[in-house]
Structures are given as C-alpha cells and as structure tokens.
C-alpha cells in the first residue's frame, strides 16, 4: 500500500510539477493545494507593513553521498535547502524534516523513484515565502523568522529511519538509507555552523513529524548541555487504531515499512525488549522513551488520518463515510461519535489518552486542536494569522514560541470535542 504525501513541498514553479501516478493519488492533490496556500497564505496585516519578497532557496546535494551510503531510493544524493540566519538569529538553527508518506512494498518504493520523494533528480529550488515556521516575515513568525532554517528533503520512504537494500522488479537496487541520510545531512550541517548553535529546534511535518520524534534524542545529544535543544513534531502522531471495517490496516502499512526498510536501529531499546518493532514505530510508544523537550502539534481530527487510517479505501466505505472523510462537516452525529469515543475505534480518545504520559513531562508542550486539517506549522494561515486555530487564546506560533523560549509554564492545551472550537476555520488546509 502506497501512502502519498500531504506534506507541503513549499513553493515550486508550476512547470516543475509533474502529473502523479495513481499510487500517489492520496497525497499529491493535497500537496498541489498546499503549494498554492503557501504562496497566498499569511497573516491578515495592515497595508502599512511591507511583506519581504520571496527568496529562492537553492538545493544543496549532500557531499560524498555515495561513499557514505547515504542515498535516495534510486541511489542519487539527498538534498536540503539552507537559508542563512541574520542578526540575533545567526547562531540559532531550525532543521525541518520533510514528510510525504511511506513505502511499504518493493513496488511502492520503486514507483517513488520517479518523483522527488525517491530521487533528487526531481528536486528543485524552493521558496520559504508564507511557510509558517520557515517564513522570514517577523510579523508572522516572530520567534524564528531570522534563524538559520534548513528544509531536509525526504527521499527514502521510511521517515529517515531505514538502513537496508532491496531489489526492484527490473533488477535495479533500491536503497533504503533514510537513517544514513539523516545522519550525514546533520553531520554536514554541523560543519556549516550548526555545531556553533546557541539554540536549535528539530521540526518535521507528517512523516517528517514522525521522523522528528524518532530522532529527537539523537539530535539533542549532538550538542553540549548549555545549548537549548528542543523538538517540534507537527501532524506526526499517527495512531494504531482499527479502521471502520474493524481491520488494523494502518498497522499493516507500518509493519511493511519496519521490516522492508529495517528501522530497528532508531527504535527505543526499552520498547524493543517487550514489544514488536512495529508497535515501537508508533508515536504513542516512542514518546515514553524520549528525554528531550518536545512540542507536539496535532489535530485530534487529523484529516489525513481520518481519510487514510480510519476510513481507508481498503475498508470499502459507503457513500456517507466517503463524504464524511472528505469533509468533517459532512459527518453525521453517529460518525462524529466514532471519531470521538467509540469503544472499537475511539480515534480522538485514543490520541488524547496517549498524551497522559506527557502530563509528567514538565518541559513538553501540547497543542492538540479539533480542526479538520493536517500539518499546521508550515502554513502562514495556520501558524499565525487572524484566522489561525487558537487554544488558550494563543495561536500555534504564540504557543510554540512561548514553550520554546520558556516564557510561560504548562503549554499543554488539548481542545474540546468537534465542533466546539470557533477558530477552526474552513479556510485551513484540508
């Protein structure tokens, strides 16, 4: 089963985007919408303020990738986009790990080689304009606007965690080297100034959000104790729940990824002592072992998970369920109960229950809203605008900034049940 991307690919010229095949049908239509949103989104500001012009951020290919065995699925070198900081942000670094689903079979991974999710041959320069936490607009992104910002491209299909090889049907080699990519890119960035950071934040969205959770402690361990190092995982809290047909279909996807790409090395040793590796790949287990301060940003009604985990195509949804998963406003009261607290499914309650362990982690933060959306840190409209989601009377940017800089205590907000929050605008990314 191929899971396509709903992760923002940031702003690329339309002529550089190609029509996706059927195996990416779950993700790239949303990604195209994301590209448009990133170019148009931003806070609603008075005309007195001038918005900085978009800046193209070139692609940097990893040096010596082949020698390090740190390559994309097709063997090409991985890449990243580095935008240098300025002023008091010159020694502050934000590293963002791109998302884009996973590939759990040889066929899926072979297909990804024809796109940027599996080959750097298709990666292009980007613009961070309007991109929320990556944006350079001080009004929209006051806490991180002038930091060194890095967008690490995702081309391994296993959340930067695999270390193996496979053989494609055409006889060519499939390189499952996500862990080596992560390690080699961070090593190279350390040489480019990351080692001198006074503050650092590892972030990621969707499959990149899961990667952030997986690598958070390793990232933190690279710095001395006097450096403020934290992690922010956006829309990466994927749940092990049964779908509407009663099957653990998403478990099967993760099980395929775990065994095909050999992700054991990144999994917590204490979890592996008494649980299956696949179970340890789910965030509900991962967060029990993480020591580094983390901010978890997620919707309790994550649109991607409702569409692909709770109501996947394989569950053969009827017309009412198909309509519901397309837009939560179409869901009946009975369906909302399934999303909230059904004994067999309990999607929202399962997520909220998993955060009980975070209550005892004083330096962690939560922003769990009830909006039907996915990936909120990379859109200006979600991150910090007049119509962005608010909890505790704070936008996501305000809550995350206060948490990171220690301006307030107890940044742990879990929203009430849908549709209680009036700030969940219909204009948010679907």
Report on this model:
There is one protein chain. The chain is of the alpha/beta class. It has a single domain (59-414), classed as 3-Layer(aba) Sandwich (Rossmann fold), CATH 3.40.50. It has 15 helices and 17 strands. The strands form five sheets. The chain has a nine-stranded mixed beta sheet, sandwiched between helices. Strands 1-6 form a two-stranded antiparallel sheet. Strand 15 and strand 16 form a beta hairpin. Helix 12 packs parallel to helix 13. It starts with a strand and ends in a 16-residue tail after the last strand.
Ordered list of secondary-structure elements with their pairings:
Layout: E1 2-3, H1 28-40, E2 56-57, E3 60-61, H2 65-68, E4 79-83, E5 92-97, E6 102-103, H3 106-112, E7 126-127, E8 148-152, E9 164-167, E10 173-176, H4 178-191, E11 199-205, H5 207-221, E12 228-234, H6 249-261, H7 269-272, H8 277-280, H9 283-286, E13 294-299, H10 303-310, H11 319-326, H12 333-341, H13 347-354, E14 365-369, H14 380-383, E15 390-391, E16 394-395, H15 396-405, E17 412-414
What characteristic shape results from the CA principal axes?
Answer: globular
Oligomeric nature of the chains: single chain
Number of helices: 15
Low-confidence stretches: 5-51
Specify Rg, calculated over alpha carbons: 20 Å
Ends: how far apart? Answer: 22 Å
Question: How would you sum up this structure in a few lines?
Answer:
The chain is of the alpha/beta class and 430 residues long.
């Amino acid at each position: 089963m191929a899971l396509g991307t709903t992760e923002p690919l940031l702003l690329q010229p339309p002529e550089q985007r190609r029509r996706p095949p059927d195996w990416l049908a779950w993700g790239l239509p949303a990604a195209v919408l994301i590209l448009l949103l990133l170019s148009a989104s931003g806070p609603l500001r008075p005309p007195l303020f001038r918005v900085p012009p978009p800046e193209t951020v070139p692609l940097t290919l990893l040096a010596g990738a082949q020698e390090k065995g740190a390559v994309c699925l097709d063997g090409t070198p991985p890449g990243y986009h580095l935008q240098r900081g300025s002023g008091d942000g010159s020694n502050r670094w934000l590293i963002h790990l791109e998302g884009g689903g996973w590939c759990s079979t040889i066929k899926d991974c072979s297909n990804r080689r024809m796109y940027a999710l599996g080959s750097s041959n298709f990666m292009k320069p980007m613009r961070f304009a309007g991109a929320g936490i990556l944006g350079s607009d001080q009004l929209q992104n006051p806490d991180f606007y002038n930091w060194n910002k890095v967008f690490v491209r995702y081309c391994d299909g296993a959340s930067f965690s695999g270390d193996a090889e496979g053989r494609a049907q055409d006889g060519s080699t499939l390189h499952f080297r996500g862990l080596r990519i992560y390690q080699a890119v961070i090593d190279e960035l350390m040489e480019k100034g990351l080692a001198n950071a006074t503050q650092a934040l590892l972030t990621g969205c969707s499959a990149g959000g899961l990667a952030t959770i997986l690598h958070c402690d390793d990232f933190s361990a690279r710095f001395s104790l006097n450096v403020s190092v934290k992690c922010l995982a956006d829309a990466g809290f994927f749940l092990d729940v049964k779908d509407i047909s009663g099957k653990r279909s998403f478990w099967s996807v993760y099980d395929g990824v775990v065994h095909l790409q050999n992700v054991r090395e990144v999994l917590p040793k204490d979890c592996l002592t008494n649980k299956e590796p696949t179970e340890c790949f789910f965030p509900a287990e991962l967060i029990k072992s993480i020591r580094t301060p983390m901010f978890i940003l997620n919707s309790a009604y994550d649109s991607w998970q409702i569409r692909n985990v709770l109501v996947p195509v394989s569950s053969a949804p009827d017309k009412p369920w198909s309509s519901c998963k397309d837009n939560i406003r179409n869901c009946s009261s009975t369906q909302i109960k399934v999303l909230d607290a059904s004994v067999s499914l309990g999607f929202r309650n399962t997520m909220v229950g998993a955060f009980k362990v975070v209550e005892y982690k004083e330096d962690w933060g939560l922003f769990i809203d009830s909006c039907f959306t996915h990936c909120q840190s990379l859109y200006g409209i979600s991150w910090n605008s007049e119509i962005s989601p608010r909890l505790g009377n704070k936008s996501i940017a305000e809550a995350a900034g206060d948490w990171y800089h220690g301006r307030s205590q107890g940044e742990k907000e879990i929203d009430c049940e849908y549709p209680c929050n009036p700030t969940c605008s219909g204009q948010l990314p679907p």
